[in-house]
Amino acid sequence: MNSTQALIKDLAIRYGRERTSLLPILQGVVEQEKYLTEFSMIEIAKELDIPASDVYGTASFYSFLETKKMGRYIIRVCKTITCFMKGKNQVLLTIEDMLNITLGETTPDGKFTLLQTNCLGWCHKAPAMMVNDEVYTELTPERVREILGQYFRRNE
After folding, report:
1. Please, what are the domains in the chain?
2. Bridging pattern class, strands 73-78 and 112-117
3. How far is residue 7's CA from residue 1's CA, in Å, rounded to a whole number?
4. 0.85 cut: is pTM over it?
5. Contacts by residues 143-147 (CB-CB < 8 Å, ≥ 24 positions apart)
6. Region of residue 132 (left: phi > 0; alpha: psi -120 to 50; beta: else)
7. Within 10 Å of residue 21's Cβ, how many Cβ atoms?
8. Average of pLDDT values for 39-62?
9. Largest CA distance in the chain
10. Within 10 Å of residue 36's Cβ, how many Cβ atoms?
11. Residue 46 pLDDT > 70
12. Which residues share a beta bridge with 73?
């Protein structure tokens, strides 16, 4: 048994093996392994005795359950109408320019991935983005350069 299989078994023990346990188990795998591999989704299906297509369908439905390898820092820019009206496009262009990537891409060094996501729940302080679990609001191109500059300087 490899570490992924052991993790899935542990999560199934913690959350149960019912279909309602699928989402917490998917979240647990992403928390530990950063994304869901084809192997992990098949193992989850076996553990819960459900079709692998159901596991993949659930995983691909939710924007925070990644099914491909992501950068160390996942930047999620809110794409709601409120963020759009308050300058989301300028924020997005600034990020793309700084990282030299477009939406859906990861920098060649594997440090950053740029995604759009549905509402982050910060419409009253739009535009907003998340970097991993950290939310940033009331963004301007200047503020984005400052925020990302901090991540460029990290040596993690």
Report:
1. 3-61 (no CATH), 73-153 (3.40.30.10)
2. parallel
3. 10
4. no
5. 144/91, 144/94, 144/95, 144/98, 145/94, 145/98
6. left
7. 18
8. 93
9. 51
10. 23
11. yes
12. 112
Nearest CA among 24, 31, 53 for reference residue 41: 53
Instruction: Yes or no: say if 44 and 55 are a contact pair by the CB < 8 Å rule.
Output: yes
Residue with tokens 């869901």: 36
- pLDDT digits 0-9 by tens, 64-100: 888 888 999 999 999 999 999 999 999 999 999 999 9
Nearest to 140 by CA among 154, 151, 125, 152: 125
Q: How many whole angstroms separate alpha carbon 93 and alpha carbon 77?
A: 11
Tell me the three state secondary structure of residue 67.
coil
Round to whole Å and give the CA distance between 104 and 116: 8
The pLDDT of residue 118 is 87
Tell me the C-alpha distance between 153 and 156, whole Å.
9
10 Å Cβ neighbour count for 52?
A: 14
Place of tokens 């692998």: 52
